[in-house]
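Quick start: what a row looks like.
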Amino acid sequence: MLQSAKSPERSRNSGPRILVVDDNESVRSYIADLLKKAGWAVDTADSGRHALGLLKSGLNPDVVLLDVMMPGLSGMQTLDQLRNNFEKIPVVMVSVAGSARKIVAAMQRGAFDYLTKPFDEEALEAVLGRAIENRRANDGVTAKALEKETTIW
């Protein structure tokens, strides 16, 4: 069962926030419902362009769950854009086709991790939890580095 550190009653802007990007409406809805029931804040996008637009307009998820195979801007092309413009947000790639070559390519291009559909709730929970911990740890390091740079002696 998926769980979050916060209760489902938390406000819209607190706790872990996930952007689910998948062109398949039924898959997108299933994942979003699963995460919402577990108390996560979830936003969805039906394409890479839609996801990038949401991020450019100020959405700041803790992690992006991104389908590899999408029409138009593919998942890999979207990953490239995310790494260029939103480098701090971890991206977990999701695909039916889990060939070793695609997995390695996604990781080399900056994906945090890769899940093969169908995946179980525990695998999803573990990957998202690690991605969020990693982001928070990196944000903490950045904050400490900025603190050191701005300290006046």
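That is the whole record. The two ends are 50 Å apart (CA to CA). Strands lie at 17-21, 41-45, 63-67, 91-95, 113-116.
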